[in-house]
């Protein structure tokens, strides 16, 4: 039973102490274990050393490596200067486009006696672009508000509102209880 217990591995990985008849040679201590017990301890130590070495190599392999970066060669500039422009010589070759106004007119009126909703609107424009119109409605205080306006290129937008008392009695709708409303479903 002489010799190293780890023959296939290099000697620096395994202990070089030889064991003979229960006495560890070279350590100066007496070991009272059987030869099988004695030879199993160096095998465990040898395997542990190999395992630790493999772990250290694995950690070293996983460490980030410093890589060399070579910058790409400089490229030629692609910018081309625009051609020189003509200087302003006092004459512009463009034509101003002027749209002629198209005359129009529209109106609508609402006279709903059931819900006391009364509104009117009228507007017109002539061939010169002058706009005139008016709109009106009856407010909850039974007053008719009439707003007249004009708009043209000289005076701009002009507006005037007139209040006119009426004998219209405004009806306010009565709220319908939720259980009487059509299509209403209670979540209770």
UniProtKB/TrEMBL annotation:
A GO term, aspect molecular function: structural constituent of chitin-based larval cuticle
Keyword set includes Membrane: no
Residues covered by region (Disordered): 68-87
InterPro entries in UniProt: Cuticle_Struct_Prot, Insect_cuticle
One GO CC term on file: chitin-based extracellular matrix
Compositional bias ranges of the Basic and acidic residues kind: 75-87
Signal peptide segment: none
Keywords (A to Z) from UniProt: Cuticle
Pfam families (alphabetical): Chitin_bind_4 (PF00379)
Protein name, entry field: Uncharacterized protein
Lineage: Eukaryota, Metazoa, Ecdysozoa, Arthropoda, Crustacea
């Amino acid at each position: 039973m002489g010799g190293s217990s780890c023959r296939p591995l290099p000697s620096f990985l395994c202990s070089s102490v030889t064991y003979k008849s229960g006495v560890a040679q070279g350590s100066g201590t007496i070991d009272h274990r059987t030869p099988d017990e004695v030879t199993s301890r160096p095998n465990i130590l040898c395997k542990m050393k190999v395992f630790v070495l493999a772990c250290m190599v694995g950690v070293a392999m996983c460490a980030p490596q410093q890589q060399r970066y070579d910058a790409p060669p400089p490229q030629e500039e692609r910018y081309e200067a625009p051609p020189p422009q003509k200087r302003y010589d006092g004459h512009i070759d463009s034509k101003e486009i002027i749209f002629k106004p198209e005359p129009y007119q529209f109106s609508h009126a609402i006279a709903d006696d059931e819900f006391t909703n009364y509104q009117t609107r009228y507007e017109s424009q002539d061939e010169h672009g002058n706009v005139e119109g008016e709109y009106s409605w009856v407010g909850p205080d039974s007053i008719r508000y009439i707003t007249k306006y004009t708009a043209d290129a000289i005076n701009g937008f002009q507006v005037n509102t007139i209040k006119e008392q009426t004998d219209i009695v405004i009806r306010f709708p009565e709220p319908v209880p939720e259980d009487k409303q059509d299509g209403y479903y209670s979540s209770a």
